[in-house]
Amino acid sequence: MPAPARPRRGAHRRRVVLLIGWLVAAGVLLTSSAARAETVQVVALAQTVDQVLNNIRNWIMGILAGIAIVLFSIAGLRYLLASGDPGEIEKAKGAFKAGCIGFGLAALAPLVVEILKGIVGGV
Fold first, then answer.
1. Mind telling me which residue stretches traverse the membrane in this protein (predicted)?
2. What is the Cα–Cα distance from 68 to 75, expressed in whole angstroms?
């Protein structure tokens, strides 16, 4: 039985050089844009407790919706790659259910903030 063919050494070197080139280009782009950034000091953006709670609500909704989108993507990929495997299909369904729960919690975030406003005394 013949031995498996070894990849050519030149192809591996080209890949390494290409990877190093991409890393150097990314480093140049990232450092050059950061070097021109101006320093700004912000002590506080929110003037009232109501604004703070609204900002918290917006952050919670954004984070939960982002996680839910990632879970939907994972569920879709698992379902596509399952190839009829019942275990993988069940895992995909579980990820889809978790995404639905994430969107449900994101939808309930304004209600939670309203309850916090009632407790804290915000108008």
1. 61-82, 94-113
2. 10
